[in-house]
Design a protein that fits this description.
The protein is built from 3 helices and no strands. By secondary structure, it is mostly helical. The C terminus is likely disordered.
């Protein structure tokens, strides 16, 4: 599997998991960007590490390891952003529902 295919697969899997965990219908653009970056970093890190291992190149393995750590941090950021977004959407939805419920009596004089 090519690194781009691996990145796309990881992005799909994590997107599905985030949507399920947060109960959101979709992820916002910032979450999607961070997730895409993290997926590409992780796929590249895997490729670097595997090449370094095959060639006995410790520098490649170290670079892959560093990039994997950055990918992990971006995946955590995407998760936290998705959770925050889902909470904000839920609160906004609840506030709008309350506003709609009380609007007719609040406007009556």
């Amino acid at each position: 599997m090519s690194p781009l295919d691996a990145a796309a697969e990881l992005e799909r899997e994590v997107t599905a998991e985030l949507l399920e965990r947060t109960g959101a219908e979709q992820l916002g653009p910032i979450v999607r960007c961070v997730l895409k970056l993290a997926s590409m970093q992780f796929a590249s890190a895997t490729e670097l590490f595997e090449n370094g291992l095959a060639e006995g190149d410790r520098q490649l393995m170290a670079s892959g390891s560093t990039m994997a750590g950055q990918a992990r941090l971006n995946l955590i950021s995407a998760h936290n952003l998705a959770v925050g977004q889902a909470k904000a959407v839920k609160e906004e939805s609840e506030d709008e529902g309350t506003a709609e419920f009380y609007a007719p009596t609040a406007k009556a004089r």
